[in-house]
Structure formats: C-alpha cells, structure tokens
TrEMBL record:
Protein name: DNA-binding response regulator
Keyword DNA-binding on entry: yes
Lineage: superkingdom: Bacteria
GO cellular component, one term: protein-DNA complex
Modified residues (4-aspartylphosphate): D55
Pfam families: Response_reg (PF00072), Trans_reg_C (PF00486)
GO process terms (BP): regulation of DNA-templated transcription
Length: 223
C-alpha cells in the first residue's frame, strides 16, 4: 500500500490508537487518530478516508451512532471494534452499515490483514460490475451470471448471494444473515428460511454452489 491510503482510527483509548497507528503506518498507510465520536464525524466529512476503524464503546457519542451518522453522507468502509462478544452487537453493526467487526483484545497483525482484505474487496465491489470466481454481478441491473448464463434468482436469493459475495471469506450465522437480508419483515417464518435459500442457491449455482460453505455450529460463508 502507498501513503495515499488514508485511514481514520477512532477510539477513546489513546494507547489503543497509538498501537493501531504504529502497525498500520509500518505497512505504509497514512493514519489519523481521534478520541471521540463527535469529532470523528466531522473529520470523516472533511477528509476522504479509505477506511475508518471505529470503537463501539466510547463516552458521549458511541460507535453505533457515529457509524449511522457517517453512513448519511459516506460509503467509506468501516471496521468496528468492541470488547463485547454479544452477537446482537455484531448484527447491529452490520445492519447500520459496518463492513467488518473485530473483537477486543485482537492481534494488531490480524487487524492490519483485515484492513488490507477490506481494501481489496472494496476495490472490487465499488464497480457496478464485478466478478467472484465464475459468478459475475451487475449490481445496478440486479443481474448475476454463472459463466455466460444469467441466473434466475428471486429477490431474496439475489440479496443473500450478493451479501455473501461482497463479504467473501467471512462467516455469518443464520441470525446475522436473516437480520441483514430480511430485516424486520413479518412475512418470513423462521430462521429455516435462510437454510432453504442457501439450498436453492447451491442448486442454481450448480458446481459453483460448493463455494457456499457450511461452517458447522456457526453459519455460512462464500469461499
């Protein structure tokens, strides 16, 4: 990476900011640090960051609120940090626009790897048209192709597959997929709906369906 890659780190713990900054700068990233949510929103408006690393638990304006406010004017990728392992927090973060979620304590090297993976993924999905393996996506037209053949997908099948493709390699529980794709709809029966849609997608994707992996005891991912 070059110094043109700009990252904002938001955490009320200065020591944490300094640690993350040191590891990111070592890899050639330019890093700004800020210690409260209100100033983070202002800075995000003023500068065109490539990624924002955002702590959830901050006094005053918390990370969830900061993420929501940034999403009102920016699509900059956001990685959220939290010391709480509650799955509800992760679902909440993803629903309001976070792109990844890292639990404290974490390895700084792992965080750097997640940053660089997210930068690569963002470079792919920012385009209207992108491809993952044999699957080609035209987002504006809501079309997907398996090799050269267009896939016939129901609305939620498309939404579910697009989410998995845009978060390639990440594991999501059925609860997370249900909340992210279906939201608060009342006409959906149970979490078995997710399993049914995964089964249908695997069938429609033929041999490529094997790339939708079941992570036993956890959920699903696109590999």
């Amino acid at each position: 990476m070059t110094l043109s890659t700009k990252i904002l780190v938001v955490d009320d713990e200065k020591e944490m900011c300094d640690l993350v900054r040191a590891y990111l700068e070592k890899e050639g990233h330019y890093v700004d640090t800020i210690f409260n949510g209100e100033e983070a929103v202002t800075l995000a408006k003023e500068k065109n960051y490539d990624i924002i690393i955002l702590d959830v638990m901050m006094p005053g304006v918390d990370g969830f609120t900061v993420c929501q406010r940034i999403r009102e004017f920016s699509t900059t990728p956001i990685i959220m940090l939290t010391a709480r392992s509650d799955e509800h927090d992760k679902v909440m973060g993803l629903k309001i626009g976070a792109d990844d979620y890292v639990l404290k304590p974490f390895s700084p090297k792992e965080l750097v790897a997640r940053v660089e993976a997210l930068l690569r993924r963002t470079a792919i999905v920012q385009s209207d048209t992108f491809q993952v393996g044999p699957i080609k996506v035209k987002k504006n037209a809501r079309q997907m192709f398996l090799y050269d053949d267009e896939l016939s997908l129901a609305r939620r099948e498309y939404d579910l597959l697009l989410f998995l493709l845009e978060h390639k390699g990440q594991v999501f529980s059925r609860n997370q997929l249900y909340d992210t794709v279906w939201g608060n709809e009342n006409d959906i029966g149970t979490l078995r709906t997710v399993d049914t849609h995964i089964k249908t997608l695997r069938y429609k994707l033929k041999s490529a369906g094997s790339q939708i992996k079941t992570v036993w005891g956890v959920g699903y991912k696109f590999e």
